[in-house]
């Protein structure tokens, strides 16, 4: 008798699940899977990019990721041409704006939550120790307030420069200086105070983390 009731409740659950759309929900997560796979073709497994012009994105905060993916989707952030590094479209031209263009807000959030739980794997790269030491002083003076503990904290929601690829950082800072990417007014004010040589030193400092 009890068994029979169990079977009945199992049936009821299935029926209600279909009624309330749990089945389409399963289909959505399959498409999320394929979107996340697309990211790996350039950003590497779990966002741990091994390409020096593609940023490491695993381990960034949800807020930073959501803001930046939406900024590409909504063309608020410049998106330079790039190409697929692996996968079925290897070598094909694309850009972050193209990649993000069809993502709904709910997709963006789910992708961001997934990536935020991954480890930020610092790039192994050559740096100049003397310039890096100078860069640390400049960082402490102009950048530490928002990029705390030497730009190592995801919770600042400001990216993490410590261990990020240096060629990518160069490009990012050029975009900020040229006004092609939105930044807080106070960061723009600090960037206006530093010289191009200071920026080179800052990048060496961030590259010195391994
Ligand atoms: C065809 C290669 C390619 C693919 C595929 C790709 N990206 Fe990117 N992504 C890049 C490049 C190159 C940049 C740096 C662009 C720039 O300078 O603004 C970038 C930048 C980003 C940034 C900004 C990071 C930062 O530090 O500011 C985020 C976030 C991002 N991508 C997320 C994603 C997500 C999520 C996916 C999958 C849905 C994805 N990308 C797929 C190449 C790619
Ligand atoms: C008033 C706070 C503030 C100050 C000061 C500041 N920043 Fe930022 N910075 C931010 C925020 C917020 C972001 C994230 C913007 C976004 O979401 O695109 C950011 C983003 C960045 C990024 C992009 C990271 C990435 O992964 O794409 C770089 C590089 C950067 N800042 C460098 C600097 C440097 C170098 C200094 C000092 C000269 C500095 N910032 C000072 C707030 C600040």
Task: Please provide a written account of the structure.
There is one protein chain. The protein is built from ten helices and two strands. By secondary structure, it is an all-alpha fold. It has two domains: 95 residues, Cytochrome c-like domain (Cytochrome Bc1 Complex, Chain D, domain 2); 79 residues, Cytochrome Bc1 Complex, Chain D, domain 2 (Orthogonal Bundle), CATH 1.10.760.10. A two-stranded antiparallel sheet has the order 1-2. Helix 3 runs antiparallel to helix 5, helix 6 packs across helix 10 and helix 8 packs antiparallel against helix 10. The chain starts with a helix and ends with a helix. 22% of the residues are buried. The model has no long low-confidence stretch (mean pLDDT 90). The structure holds heme C (2 copies). One heme C (HEC) binds next to helix 3, helix 8 and helix 9. The site of one heme C has 24 residues, from helix 2, helix 3, strand 1 and helix 4.
In short:
The model has no long low-confidence stretch (mean pLDDT 90). This protein is mostly helical. 57% of the residues lie in helices and 2% in strands.
């Amino acid at each position: 008798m009890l068994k029979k009731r169990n079977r009945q409740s199992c049936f009821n659950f299935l029926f209600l699940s279909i009624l309330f759309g749990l089945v389409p929900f399963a289909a959505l997560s399959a498409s999320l899977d394929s979107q996340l796979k697309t990211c790996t073709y350039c950003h590497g497994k779990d966002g741990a990019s091994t390409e020096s012009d593609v940023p490491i994105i695993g381990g960034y905060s949800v807020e930073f990721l959501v803001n930046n993916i939406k900024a590409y989707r909504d063309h608020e952030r410049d998106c330079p041409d790039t190409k697929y590094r692996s996968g079925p479209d290897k070598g094909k031209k694309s850009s972050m704006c193209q990649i993000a263009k069809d993502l709904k807000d709910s997709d963006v959030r789910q992708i961001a939550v997934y990536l935020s739980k991954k480890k930020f794997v610092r790039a192994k790269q050559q740096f100049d120790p003397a310039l890096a030491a100078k860069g640390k002083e400049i960082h402490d003076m102009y950048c530490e307030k928002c990029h705390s503990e030497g730009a190592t904290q995801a919770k600042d929601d400001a990216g993490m420069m410590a261990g990020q690829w240096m060629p990518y950082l160069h490009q990012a800072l050029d975009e900020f200086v040229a006004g092609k990417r939105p930044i807080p007014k106070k960061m723009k004010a600090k960037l206006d105070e530093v010289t191009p040589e200071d920026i080179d030193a800052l990048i060496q400092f961030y590259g010195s983390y391994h």
